[in-house]
Structures are given as structure tokens and as C-alpha cells.
Amino acid sequence: MPDPVFLAVDLGAESGRVIAGRFTPPTSEASGEGGTVALEEVHRFPNGPVAIPGPDGALSLRWDLPALWKEIVIGLTKAGTRYSGEVVSIGVDTWGVDYVLLSETGEALGLPWNYRDARTENAFDEAFADVPREEIFAGTGIQFLPFNSLYQLRATRRDHPELLAAATRLVLMPDWFHRCLCGSEAVEFTNATTTQLVDPKTRDWNRDLIAKLDLPDRIFGPIAAPGTELGTLFPSLSQQTGLPESVKIVAPATHDTGSAVAAAPTERTGHADWAYISSGTWSLVGIETQGPVLGEQALAANVTNEGGVDGTNRLLKNVMGLWLVQGVRRSFARGGDDLDYAELTRRAAAAEGLVSLIDPDDPRFLAPTDMAAEIVGYCRETGQPEPEDIAAMVRCCLDSLALRYAAVLETLADLTGERPQVVHVMGGGCRNGLLNQLTANACGVPVLAGPVEATALGNVLMQMRAAFEIDSLAELRAVVRRSEEVTRFEPNADDDWAAAKTRLRKLSDRA
């Protein structure tokens, strides 16, 4: 019999893909090997927000659900042709926080907002007027970011109360696609935690907080654990894609970072002596703990406690990530200098390092119309040399990211009392060898880069777990170590890095 195939629908903020994971089981129990998994890209497509004018002409950023669904079906149809009856299950993961409101009959109430939309600019002041910041953190353990679902829902209540009045259910982005596949309206746990509305201790909706924020309790339905079987493929989709009706729909860790961390090739589970960076448009910099880290020190550090697999907790901070480089690329492309990321990295490697620095998390970089102009303006305002060309600008971004990663890991070490001895960099950003080396230099510990498709791999692994008797997260990670190679970067730090850390700290304090 052919080895079983699992399909991961992995949607990122810049692109989406349908990836097949083929599991090769051990040849025998006596072999001592627990099987391997190999990934194959079936379909890839671009993604990004769509700017739609409202009645007053003001633009709002939305996600194009029909376009995304069309691409997913194309990918599943290709898989139906390529793998015939070998497919066991399908699971979807996406970014966090964004949601779809459903009507009483299950229809989507409009196109969901993109988290970079400006409607949440004054979100904190409005929410804290009803519930103090300290109480929100104590009841959720989540980092204060203006685009969290909590503040998006408050903006919807303010600007479009008719939508909340008509809504009977809230589902997050991956949950909506699961609904399209099999009819489920469950919200998966790891992504639910990104809403800033889940109690980290009970691991369920914080109904008391929801009431105090004047949000409708009825829209918050059941939360499903990662690995839950949600149903089977609709017959209509079986006919459309060629996949069997027996194909199961399984919720992986639907938050892309949750899936990526599940695929970390570490031998340690639930320990703070190793760190991860899920590197892509965003960089999620964190450690894995056995429970939430709360209290005044955690609140002051503005860390987040997101749900993980097998009861683990992801203690982390969001860092702006390669969005900075993507924005610089777009800025120069408009002027005719359109370079791919490999060339941008090559030029940045040849540029002098640690000349100008930015605070990657400064709000001005969240959704600028011209990233390059914002970086030049930031350097000018802070008395630093203005990057003169694209090489200097990309080097500025990468140096600043590496230093920000190091600062976050120092904060997490202070909170847990345990300092990471190695950093696993996973996701598309791990292809950037320059950034990996700079990160090792800034953090002062080895960086292990890989796997590249960590999110899709984690998605597939959780589906495998639902299909076979795989006992633990540790066993899943053993499959990763057997299946994927990693590249090691040793630190090469000097006094310049120590001085640069102080410079970045001052810039962050300024903000």
C-alpha cells in the first residue's frame, strides 16, 4: 500500500500554499525508527489585503475570502489528481486574530478586516475605559497589540453595530475554511488564544471579561483542541476535487506559529532552555513553558502567553519581522529597482553593519505607505546616518531585527530564570543566512535554522497524530529530526554588538 498523505493548507499574510505530507512509517518496530515525513508543494498562490472604499470613500483593508477559497480548491483538486485515494485528511492554519462573523444561517457577514486596518488606532484607550489594562492581562496573559481580536471586535461594535447584532458565531480565519470543508464552526484553541479573550488557566473563553467589554457572549462557541477531528469532506467538494468523501478534516494547531513550534526539532519539550523564532512576515520570538507566566513583571514586559500543543504554553513577543524588508523591497520596486530577496540579502551582506538601527516595533512601521521613507525619517529623527541605498537599508533592518530578538530573549530569561542555550529559527525566514548569523551574534548562542516549511510540517504532524497512535509532542518532534536537516550558525560576537544592544535599548525606551 502507498504511504498515507496529509494535506496542509497553510495561509500566510503574503502567500498561501497547499502542501502534501507523505508519512513513511517505520519498517518494523525492531528497527528503532519511528518513521519520517516528506513534504511536497502542490499549489502556491499570492495573498494580501484588499483595500475597499467605504460609503465615505475611506479605504479599509479586507481579506478576500472567495479568492482564497478558490485557490484552496484549486490546490485540493491538484492533490486529488496527484494522490488519488491516498489522502487521509486536510487541515488549515493561518495567522492569528482575524475573524469572520457568521449569521444565524451560517453565512459570512461581510469580508473580514485585515489586522493592519487603521480602525483600531485608538483601541487601547477605548477598551481600558471599560476594563483596566491590568485586569485584561491577568485574565488573558496576552501581549497588548492594537490588532488583537478584542480591539477589532470593539471597533466593529463602535462602527458597525449591525454586524454584531446579526452575528450568532465568531470563527477565526482557519475555522472559516474548515467550515467550508465540512461544516464545523468550532474555534481551535491555539488560535483562539490570540484573540485576547481566552483565560490562560481555564483554557476557555473568559466570559466575565467578554461581558465587561460589552461583547455578545453568544458568538463565542466551542473551543477545540489541536488535533481534533472536525468532520469529513463535504460530498460536493469530493466531486469537485476528486478527493474521497472519507477524507477527514482535522484541526491542527491552526495558529501558524503554534504549528511551527510543534515542528521545532528539539529534544526538549516544555522547557525554557531553548528558544524559537518563527521567522516570516512576523517574527514570533519565544520559549516553551508548562504554564502561563503572568504577574506584574510579565505585564510590564508586555509578553504574550499563547496556547500550544499538549498543554504547553508559548511565552513570546511579536516582533515586526521581515515585513520591514518586504516593505523596503516594495518602496524601491516602485522606483524601478525590483530585486528578489536573495539579491537583497547578498547586497546587505556586503554593506557595513551596525551603522543605523531602528526599533522594529515602532508603530510607524506597521502599515506605512512607503517603508523606505519611514526608515530614513526614523534615522534622521534619531540622529543616525540615513541609509543611502537599498543595501544599507536592508542591512539596517536585519541588524535591528537580530538585536530585537536578543532583547526579547533577555526579557523572557528574566521572567523564567532560565536562559536559552540555543535558538531554533523556523519558517521562510530561516533561508536568510545573513539574518541567522546576525541573530547568533546578537544572542550569543548557536542558531539552528530549519525546517523552512515548519508551519506546514507542524500542521501535517498534528493530522498524523489524529490518524495514528503517536503519543506525545516529543514523539512528533522526533519525526521532524529524522525528516529535516538544520543549519548551524555559531555566534561571532564582539564589543560592537554589546554597544549596539545599548543603542537599540535607548531607541526602544524613546518609543
UniProtKB/TrEMBL annotation:
Ranges where the Carbohydrate kinase FGGY N-terminal domain occurs: 62-260
Keywords per UniProt: ATP-binding, Disulfide bond, Kinase, Nucleotide-binding, Rhamnose metabolism, Transferase
Domain Carbohydrate kinase FGGY C-terminal, chain residue ranges per copy: 275-467
GO terms of molecular function: rhamnulokinase activity
InterPro entries noted in UniProt: ATPase_NBD, FGGY_C, FGGY_N, Rhamnulokinase
Enzyme class at the top of the EC tree: transferase
Pfam families recorded: FGGY_C (PF02782), FGGY_N (PF00370)
Top-level division of the source organism's lineage: Bacteria
EC numbers: 2.7.1.5
Protein family membership: Belongs to the FGGY kinase family.
The protein's name in its UniProt record: L-Rhamnulokinase
